[in-house]
Amino acid sequence: MKKLILTLTLLITTLITNAQIGVVTLKRKSEYVPMNMWYTIHDKDRENQMYFTSHDEEVANDVLQKVLLDLGIDPEDSQGEDERGDDYWGTDLGNGFYSWIFFGKDKNFYTVTILTEEQ
After folding, report:
1. Which tens digit of pLDDT belongs to each residue from 35-45?
2. Is 101 in contact with 90 (CB distance < 8 Å)?
3. CB 98 within 8 A of CB 92
4. Looking at residue 51, what DSSP letter applies?
5. What angle do CA 49, 37, 79 make, to 5 degrees?
6. Is the entire prediction scored with pTM above 0.85?
7. What does 56-84 look like in DSSP terms, one character per residue?
């Protein structure tokens, strides 16, 4: 009976641990950019920003679509392009915050950026 309880405990703990989503925090002047995972940059000018970078346009586009749909934004309703030529969308979160979502294209990679500001 003790072995069964221990086995179930280990199984449940493993499942819970593997189900969590991780976000890496980089130092301000880090040259390392993690690919295919969410990350933040520890810098006062980049507070409330999250990034997802990939060399694969399809992977980055899938992440963008999921973010937009989770926020109730129609992917076809882009609000235009920023000064760098990146498409962006925005939404009022209804809790005093507004989120901007950017899809940046560079020659070697694609980045989804989420910037959330207090209104």
Report:
1. 888 988 877 77
2. yes
3. yes
4. E
5. 45
6. no
7. -HHHHHHHHHHHHHHTT--TT---EE-TT
